[in-house]
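Note to self: user wants both folds in one dump. Writing first protein now.
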Amino acid sequence: MLVAVASGLYIAARFGPGPRDGLMTGLHARLGWPIWAARLGVEASVLFVGWLLGGTVGVGTVIFAAGIGPLVHLALPLFERRQGSRRARPSSPVSAG
């Protein structure tokens, strides 16, 4: 759960996603996949390739890979700022005019 909350915080703050989160958000933006499905696909691919390369796959690894997508999907909206909100940051640091 901590990883999902951290991902929601830094993605919503627009600090730039890491490699897996970048792939997840890219699949979401390009293909329209829900966040949970994109992250599940990324994690399942990484898990499978790691296993093919001889890595150990335990119960915890499978639980994390299956659970992180839905948890990030739930965490992201908690930290996103709405465009119409008074507290929302301007899209550009340069003032108009």
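First done. Writing the second protein, which came from a different request thread.
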Amino acid sequence: MSRRGNCLDNALIESFFGHLKNYIINRSCGSIEEVRERGGSYISYYNCERGRWNLKKMTPKQCRDHLIAA
């Protein structure tokens, strides 16, 4: 997260945390370990499986690998 007043920088991370909270809250967790496990699985899904329209339907990982190769 960036310093105060950079709403465009903070918007991306705030959106991610909002999606993460919704994902975890909508599933009942019995312990903190389950929360950590579900959080880790969501982060993996977010980076490696979930395509983004503004990245031409590529995942963030695919986009990063594409940019490194170019």
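Dump finished. Worth passing along: DSSP finds three helices and no strands in the chain.
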